[in-house]
């Protein structure tokens, strides 16, 4: 029996897995505190995809057949890795070291995330590495760094939730996305907490709310400015806290002075009385927590939106003490650790900046290289694909992401990947991305590799190996080490097990913001995880942040006055609806794993657009009609469901499918100027009705357009 963790969301619920002769059982770990002995349906079925018949278990290379088509040819491990390294070497000799790039993922262990960063900078000597977390936590991270001087998604442990008297949950659908967090919210509710949700839709999460604010996507900062206005106007702010612990109050006051509740009502449709009630309830409560997620963050104003919600915690002094805190709820299994150890274009391990000379010295010394041989910053995820499209990058290694499905404006991404001279994908499956690869190398699943992960609370823990890798295949880290060796850099990658990498990661992170120096495998195995920062072995970790000081050099947090901006692509006469995208309870991200998990896939076999009854009426929809959604970038046909709860201007689609079912054919690749986060949550679309015949014609038309 192995003590494992579910491979999906950031709750990282404890799993007990037993693997026997082709059989397995998985049940919740009763002793793991975070998930309180629970699992959601994804957790119960987590091992299923590992044994799926379509697992890629032998390296494959793409061969061009005479008729212009291509097919896979299986090859041995040694020969494959030798050839891949040879092809990388040839590309770099011809086009320069920075013709290669790496794309990583936030569901990988800390060890792998660290290794990918080092592999790019030391083995490939390229600045070009980024990862799917750019699409996920980058706005929250930038805002956390600006406001608090450090980015740890939740500033407090989950158990503080039930001590909060008022909760504001904005752009977060916890009931579907972190289902085992619900018992904490229910406990708070039972104690009498006042709960506010902010979302363009009614969601299973908003069912909890005392007040649900149904906003058109993109209007959060207007609404929050209204709340701040009332708090300041009615002297509800915590002045002693503001005077001693934060900077920037005057700027904030000025920014919100025009946002009277009446104006906010006129701009957003949220009644002035409701704005006042929410402001008063949150400010007057003895304790309170604000939590946000991708709903407000995946926008071109994502950093501003997040900063504004953080303002609520800071002006009311509801942070750094029990029952209080701010949480940007991390998404992927290791979405927190994944952004700390150097797979981000501008970062080195320990959350260090790659442009900071001292940071470069420190990490170079740990890696045994000269600081001046360490490349500088690269570019963000979507910009990396743009570079590939322009022919500036010729080779790419993808490990832990399926960017053809998950990137905005995926038509460009697909086109770009087709231009590569070398695309190596290390994955469990032949994903939509892997289909374009020259080499598809089998990756190891969560059950086959040990390592550490950091959950949404900033709690690091150890995940055991539940079984030996299928077919005796190498683990992901061994593949990277072997490639490094074949590239002549083996001396820098001398690891025989994950713990060796972690030991080096601890040294590399020492003294950095995300300090793991004091965390050891032994300590992690003894305890139910350790919260970073943990600078020394004698240190027991930091569950509650900011009790006395914030992480800026002067110890103070920063308020930011936010002037709400328009989204990149507001609705207009030609594209009159706002498309917003997100998740369903049954699927995970690009669906690579959950579309291969029958019990989950059966419940949601295809994307279904959620629309308001007024849209259905306007389009005269019949029960079996389908919708044709068109944006400036693409078009798709989907089934629909009508929901009273969605904002009338808005249509919602989940993004868990590929090919013609992928909503990222439509999304806009506009980026937040600071975080470089794409605007997944807002783009303008037109909706048309397709009845059976019409649908056939339309599909023919689309097919013709594609040819
Ligand atoms: N079942 C499941 N769970 C998951 C995942 C999954 O794919 N499936 N993915 C994991 C990952 S990586 C992540 S990042 C998290 C994401 O977790 P969430 O961020 O909670 O999920 P989303 O569905 O992307 O968006 C949340 C909500 O934001 C709303 N929203 C859209 N636009 C706006 C807006 O302008 N303002 C406001 N206030 N709300 C808006 C949407 O209607 C949606 O209900 O979930 C994690 N957990
Ligand atoms: N429209 C729209 N698009 C979005 C979002 C949205 O809300 N709307 N959300 C964005 C967000 S928040 C995220 S996080 C991204 C994520 O999107 P992706 O990066 O595409 O995420 P996954 O589908 O998890 O892809 C992970 C891949 O790695 C493989 N894999 C999993 N574990 C391992 C492992 O241990 N080793 C190896 N070698 N492979 C492994 C899986 O099979 C899968 O193919 O999508 C983003 N895209
Ligand atoms: S809540 Fe998240 S970690 Fe827990 S079982 Fe569900 S998907 Fe897995
Ligand atoms: Mo994410």
UniProtKB/TrEMBL annotation:
Segments forming a coiled coil: none
GO cellular component, one term: membrane
CDD domains xrefs: MopB_CT_Fdh-Nap-like
SMART domains: Molybdop_Fe4S4
Keywords: 4Fe-4S, Iron, Iron-sulfur, Metal-binding
Needed cofactors: Mo-bis(molybdopterin guanine dinucleotide)
Span of domain 4Fe-4S Mo/W bis-MGD-type: 1-52
Superkingdom of source: Bacteria
BP GO annotations: respiratory electron transport chain
Protein's UniProt name: Assimilatory nitrate reductase catalytic subunit
The organism of origin for this protein: Xylanibacillus composti
Gene for this chain: nasC
């Amino acid at each position: 029996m192995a003590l494992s963790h579910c491979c999906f969301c950031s709750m990282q619920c404890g799993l007990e897995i037993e693997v026997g002769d082709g059989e397995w059982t998985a049940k919740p770990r009763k002793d793991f505190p975070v998930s309180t002995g629970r699992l959601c349906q994804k957790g119960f079925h987590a091992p299923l995809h590992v044994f799926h018949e379509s697992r890629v278990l032998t390296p494959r290379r793409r061969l061009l057949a005479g008729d212009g088509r291509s097919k896979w040819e299986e090859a041995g491990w040694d020969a494959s890795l030798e050839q891949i390294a040879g092809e990388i070497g040839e590309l770099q000799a011809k086009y320069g070291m920075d013709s290669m790039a790496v794309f990583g993922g936030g569901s990988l262990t800390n060890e792998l995330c660290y290794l990918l960063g080092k592999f790019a900078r030391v083995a490939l000597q390229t600045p070009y590495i980024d990862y799917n977390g750019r699409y996920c936590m980058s706005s929250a991270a930038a805002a956390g760094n600006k406001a608090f001087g450090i980015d740890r998604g939740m500033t407090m442990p989950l158990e503080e939730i039930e001590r909060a008297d008022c909760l504001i949950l904005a752009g977060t659908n916890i009931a579907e996305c972190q289902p085992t967090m619900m018992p904490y919210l229910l406990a708070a509710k039972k104690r009498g907490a006042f709960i506010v949700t902010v979302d363009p839709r009614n969601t299973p999460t908003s069912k909890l709310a005392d007040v649900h604010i149904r906003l058109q996507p993109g209007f959060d900062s207007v609404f929050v400015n209204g709340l701040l206005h009332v708090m300041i106007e009615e002297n509800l702010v915590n002045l002693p806290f503001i005077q001693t612990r934060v900077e920037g109050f005057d700027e904030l006051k000025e920014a919100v002075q025009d946002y009277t509740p009446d104006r906010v009502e006129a701009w957003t449709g949220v009644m002035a009385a409701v704005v006042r009630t929410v402001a008063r309830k949150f400010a007057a409560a003895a304790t309170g927590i604000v939590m946000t997620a991708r709903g407000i963050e995946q926008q071109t104003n994502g950093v501003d939106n997040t900063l504004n919600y953080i303002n609520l915690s800071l002006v009311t002094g509801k942070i750094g003490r029990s029952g209080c805190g701010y949480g940007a709820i991390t998404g992927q299994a290791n979405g927190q650790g994944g952004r700390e150890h150097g797979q981000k274009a501008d970062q080195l391990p320990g959350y260090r900046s790659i442009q900071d000379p001292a940071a470069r010295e420190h990490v170079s010394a740990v890696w045994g290289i000269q600081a001046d041989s360490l490349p500088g910053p690269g570019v963000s995820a979507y910009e990396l694909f743009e570079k590939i499209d322009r022919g500036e990058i010729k080779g790419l290694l993808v490990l832990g992401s399926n960017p053809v499905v998950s990137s905005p404006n995926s038509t460009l991404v697909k086109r770009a990947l087709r231009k590569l001279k070398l695309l190596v994908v290390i994955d469990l499956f032949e994903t939509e991305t892997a289909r374009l690869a020259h080499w598809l190398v089998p990756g190891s699943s969560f059950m086959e590799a040990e390592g550490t992960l950091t959950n949404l609370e900033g709690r690091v823990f150890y995940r055991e190996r539940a079984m030996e890798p299928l077919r005796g295949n190498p683990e992901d880290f061994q593949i990277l080490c072997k490639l490094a060796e074949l590239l002549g850099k083996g001396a820098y990658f001398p690891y025989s097990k994950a713990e060796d990498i972690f030991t080096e990661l601890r040294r590399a992170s020492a003294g950095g913001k995300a300090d793991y120096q004091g965390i050891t495998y032994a300590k992690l195995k003894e305890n139910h995880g350790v919260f970073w920062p943990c600078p020394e072995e004698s240190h027991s970790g930091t569950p509650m942040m900011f009790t006395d000081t914030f992480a800026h050099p002067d110890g103070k947090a920063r308020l930011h006055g936010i002037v709400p901006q328009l989204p990149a692509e507001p609705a207009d006469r030609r594209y009159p609806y706002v498309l917003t995208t997100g998740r369903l309870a049954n699927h995970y991200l690009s669906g690579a794993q959950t579309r291969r998990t029958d019990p989950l896939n059966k419940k949601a076999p295809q994307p279904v657009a959620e629309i308001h009854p007024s849209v259905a009426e306007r389009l005269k929809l019949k029960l079996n009609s389908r919708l044709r959604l068109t944006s400036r970038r693409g078009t798709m046909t989907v089934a629909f469901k009508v929901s009273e709860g969605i904002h009338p201007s808005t249509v919602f689609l989940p993004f868990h499918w590929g090919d013609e079912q992928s909503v990222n054919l439509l999304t806009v690749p506009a980026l937040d100027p600071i975080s470089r986060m794409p605007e997944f949550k807002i783009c303008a679309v037109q909706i048309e009705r397709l009845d059976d015949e019409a649908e056939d014609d339309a599909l023919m038309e689309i097919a013709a357009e594609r040819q």
